[in-house]
Amino acid sequence: MVKPFVPQLVYFEPKALDYPLGKELMEKFTKLGVEIRETTSHNQVRNLPGKNDFQKYRIAKSTLVVGLRKTLKFDTSKPSAEYAIPFATGCMGHCHYCYLQTTMGSKPYIRTYVNTDDIFEAAEKYMKERAPETTRFEASCTSDIVGIDHLTHTLKRAIEFFGESKHGVLRFVTKFNHVDHLLDAKHNERTRFRFSMNADYVIKNFEPGTSSFADRIEAAGKVARAGYPLGFIIAPIYVHDGWEEGYKDLFERLESELPQEAKKDLTFELIQHRFTKPAKRVIEKNYPMTKLELDEEKRRYKWGKYGIGKYIYEKDQEASLKDTLSDYIEKYFPNAKLEYFT
Ligand code: SF4
Question: CA-to-CA distance for 299 and 136, rounded, in angstroms?
Fold first, then answer.
């Protein structure tokens, strides 16, 4: 059982203490006896303890910076939503394949933003621009937001904010089971609560520091009983010996362990494993013993944003992954919606 995250070290930007959430967090961490430091900006978070890069990386992953979100221009977030809504960045998990290896390679610490009203105001503007069309906001593009929310309750406020909104909906995904404080949020079914799931082999070998399959399923059941629309992201879909059986077993277990409520309005998103060259370098440095297969020769190159292309599976392998997993969804969850495969 993975315990709810408590940082080892917390930095506060001085302006954060002008906000109620900043003050609340200062009190909380003082009471918990966590080491607290001041920093003028997160960019100044240098000299993290640790004898070498390997140790520094691990300490950074359990360091929290409490600050303000300055950029209120949201990134797009295709295909799952129109915009990424930024409540936090970074994650305490240690998934070897994590996409944050590319986006936050040199700054792996976790940041939480206390000026949530500014973020909500920006979201309101984006909704107005598209109204009466619905605008979807994805809250987990830059972190596993559920993993730190027991400390901040920012996600809970966001769920209630979108619960009241006319033209906006919220989505996020997690690998953590610490969801209890979110169960009584007034979501009005405008938040889709998703869990990231995978074949046993992938969870065991590549997802240290996150909740187990059994704990995630149990949390998914609670979330469904609380009336949230539920979803699963199967990612990264990863070719390994016996992958067909491994993924079949995943769907069988989901089917047998989920309560009936969870099956009423269920979505699946399928994302094949991919990596970029910069991510490969970071992964090999931070997880030198990883079994993760990162051989460009076995993959197909796909052009990506900012000139950083990614390596995905060869066409025939990709088709086989897509067909096999789509068939399982149809067999075990005939009423569910498969939103995309990418
Ligand atoms: Fe990355 Fe998600 Fe794993 Fe956190 S839980 S390390 S965000 S893949």
Answer: 32
